[in-house]
Please model this.
Amino acid sequence: MPSSNFALATKYWRLFAVSLSLNRQSYLVDWPKPRDTIYRKASIDRPRESHSTASQVPLPENVSVESAGLAPTLDRSLDLLETLSAEPRGMTLSQLSETLSAPKNFMFRITQTLLSHGYLARDEADLAFRLTPKLRKLSPPRWRGIGLAEASREGMNWLRDKTGETMQLGVLNEQEGIIIDQAEGTQPLRIIVNLSLRFALHNNAPGKLLLALLAAEQQSLTLSEPKLTATTPRTITTKSGLRRECEQIIAAGYSTDHAEADDGVHCFAAPIFDTDETVAGAIWISGLAKRLPKSRFHYFGAVVSATGQRISRSIGEMG
Model:
């Protein structure tokens, strides 16, 4: 082989060796470089039977044996979720990066993954990330071992006895609501539904309330539905009208249903808040329109709102 060809071949072989080395390292190191990289690499090379020799492996000063072996991306993702759970108003990418001492591009990949799976929402106005109710499906909220239905039961029974009407409790489930409990009214003719009944977010009191309290991005997603189906002549079927309704709900602190879902039935809903000020669910009165006339909407709205606040305070004390 001519010397020039040999030199060229040697050059390419070195480049190949460097490339192979870099590729091998990329499998061992997860960017950004985690605090436990030295230990993780050592643990890979360590014989399987040497579990008791972990203390002999040199560790960085800021890494403990207990934290060694963690998956850095998952570890930081959980840190992010815990951080956002303590910030109901959300945090921007820059704030998350600074708070968690992680590179912005690394946090960007984590937030985009959580966004794609529906566990985060991003406000279009301030670009802040917030947790979504989807996390609650993995583990419904409990306070000292007590779930939402049990925590709300006393308040529901109190308002049922005060008004004689059926009280119902529901939570958000993706792009709709679901009824999880009810206290039947004492009237001979009363509203009763099957538990686990699902309801839309545009044509009833609890649905509109949950919609109004969604983060801006989630609210926009719901309002992007191609059509708002009318179930009675009073159903709101325009997105602009529904946005105005949401604004009024936020201002009033409760939501009303003026025979918008079913003819002859009126409802009044109020939120129940978790200890972190996120919405845990909605409580509402359902009854015949003639017993819940429009002239008394303000009264029933105020009394259901007071009951929701009472339950929220009770949850806060348990939390």
User: Anything to note?
Assistant: The CA atoms of residues 5 and 11 lie 10 Å apart. The first helix runs from residue 3 to 28. The chain has two domains: 71-131, 143-318. Strands lie at 120-122, 129-131, 142-143, 146-147, 166-173, 176-183, 198-199, 255-258, 265-273, 279-288.
